[in-house]
Amino acid sequence: MEKETRTTRSIIARTQRLEEMRAALLNMLEDTEEARRDAEAERNKIQTIITNFSDGLLVFNPNGRLDVINPHAEKIFGIQAEDALGLTKEELVRFPTMMASLKILNEKEDVFRREVLIQETFVAELTKIQIRLGRTPMGIMVIFHDITREKEIERLKTEFVSLTAHQLRTPLSAIKWILRALSEGDVGELEAKQKDMLEKAYNSNERMIDLINDLLNVTKIEEGRYLYQPVLSHITDVVNVVVKDYIELAKRKDIVFKVQKPLRKLPRVLIDKEKISLAIQNLIDNAIKYTPRKGTVTVSVVGSSKEVKVSVQDSGMGIPKAQQNRVFGKFFRATNAQTVDTEGSGLGLYLVKNIVEAHDGKVDFISTAQKGTTFTITLPVKEEVGEFLKKF
Amino acid sequence: MAKVLVIEDDTFLRELIVQKLDQGGYDIAEAVDGEEGVKQAKAEKPDIILLDLILPGIDGFEVLRQLKEDETLSSIPVLILSNLGQKEDIEKGMKLGAKGFLIKAHFTPGEIIEKIKSILA
Question: What is the pLDDT of residue A369?
Fold first, then answer.
């Protein structure tokens, strides 16, 4: 009897422990279930974000296969996810709409907002980012942002400016012709004072014509059809021709105008001579304009087998430090420059930068207030002429 | 005296250039659009043609093409006088057989007459 009672108690105790364990297990199961639901909710959330993302999105896994393509990207490229998922970049070439983008994706570095023409009427900005979890590479994410509308507006604006500039030329020509006819006495002799006035009007009109020419050059740059038949040329020849035009102007301002050329012959550069001349002209023009009487302006040419440099150094007023980062912007004019010359268009250095960059070169400057400024154009010496020409 | 045909739609510019030519002692024929220009060229047989490019109806390039296709007219020198001045325009004009290309805003009537004189000399 005693023994039975002990057995019964032991069974009861074990049952109780078992039940406790069962409760604990159930608890754990519930926790796991909850965690699973949380994870799924999280995944759905991310999935929803990707699906509804207004930019096109591609993700390639570390093996280079397409892992994610969101509906917007499907639409952009006109392809179905099930046809594209799991394919490598090389295999995706079969979709013609993806060609241009894939070419960019083959570059090693990250890409930030690069313009890419996907279809005739569709332009996107492509951003490519290497994604990592901690230090483990997780593949590549590519974002396509639609800028078709912006491009269209830009095109309309450029077209408008170009058309307006051309239209403005007609009345300006008429004014020019009339002023000339008047001052040449075609409709009766004039007094010296009247002639003088007409001459001033004529000069103002000429400035207007120049400004229109600048605007037309800017629109050409923006339409991307600016460079014209680059030819292999000696940069010193180009500099010589430009410099000649400024000797007289410098003399009139008592400016010491020097040219320093290298002793050895430099390699030739592939340039659109007229445009590079225009760039150098702009730099010399500025240097003379913003250098006080009896100052110095030095044009120097140096180079190596890799690049040639043209520098224009002046002892002028300098560019205020706070404004130096805007120097190459369109319509930018430094505050101190405006006091010396009220009529500059603010397009000169913008043109210089665009011309030089269209040649894969660069332009930079060093400037100290009241001491002077040096602008330097650097142009690369190209080996593969063919490669360069392909761009135009 | 040499005869100049002026094909220019802008009345004002046309008058100015005609006036200057008149003073220079030239005979003058005028046309205000492309079609009339070709017609006048055939009728007047000028010694030189001053041709604007942007014209109502057929444009200056087309006029130039028609002039150069016509055996009786192809030898008449054509001087383009236009507000266009892009390299493409200039090249196109020269390729079609123009003798010269003057951008209006860059030349005075006097200089234009000089140019005509030098071509006819």
Answer: 84
pLDDT bin (cut points 50, 70, 90) of residue A392 is very low
What long-range pairs does A241-247 form, CB within 8 A, spacing at least 24?
A241/A277, A242/A277, A242/A280, A242/A281, A242/A284, A243/A284, A243/A299, A245/A281, A246/A284, A246/A285, A246/A288
Total domains in the fold of chain B = 1
Q: Backbone phi, then psi, for B84, in 5-degree steps?
A: -70, 155
Residues in chain A with CB shorter than 8 Å from the CB of B19 are 181, 186
Domain containing A75 — which CATH number?
3.30.450.20
Task: Please tell me which of the candidates A166, A181, A212 has its beta carbon nearest to residue B16.
Answer: A181
Closest-CA distance of chain A to residue B84, Å: 7
State whether A186 and B20 contact (CB < 8 Å): yes
- Segment A42-57, tens digit of pLDDT: 889 988 888 888 899 9
Which carries the bigger pLDDT value, residue A227 or residue A170?
A170
User: Between A173, A180, A220, which is nearest B104 by CB?
Assistant: A173
What tokens were used for A141?
A: 């994410």
Please check the confidence at residue A390 and state whether its pLDDT lies above 60: no
Question: Would you state the structure tokens that stand for residue A227, as one six-digit string?
Answer: 């460079």
- Cα angle A293, A299, A301; round to 5: 170
B-facing residues of A in 215-234 (CB < 8 A) are 216, 220, 228
Whether residues A181 and B83 touch (CB distance < 8 A) is answered with no
Shared domain check, A350 and A235: yes
Distance from CA of A165 to the nearest CA of B (A): 10
Written as six digits, the tokens of A386 are 């063919």
Chain B residue closest in CA terms to A212: B105
What is the CATH classification number for the domain harbouring B56?
A: 3.40.50.2300
Cα A127 to its chain centre, rounded Å, is 14
Range of the domain at A138: 53-146
Alpha-carbon distance of A233 to A43, in angstroms, equals 61
State both tokens at A280: 């150098």
Written as one string, the DSSP assignment of A304-340 is -SSEEEEEEEE-S----GGGGGGTTSTT---HHHHHH
The answer for residues whose C-beta is within 8 angstroms of residue A103's C-beta and 6 or more apart is none
Three-state DSSP class for residue A275: helix
Contact: A228, B87; criterion CB under 8 Å: yes
Query: Cα(A390)–Cα(B4) distance, rounded to whole angstroms?
Result: 45
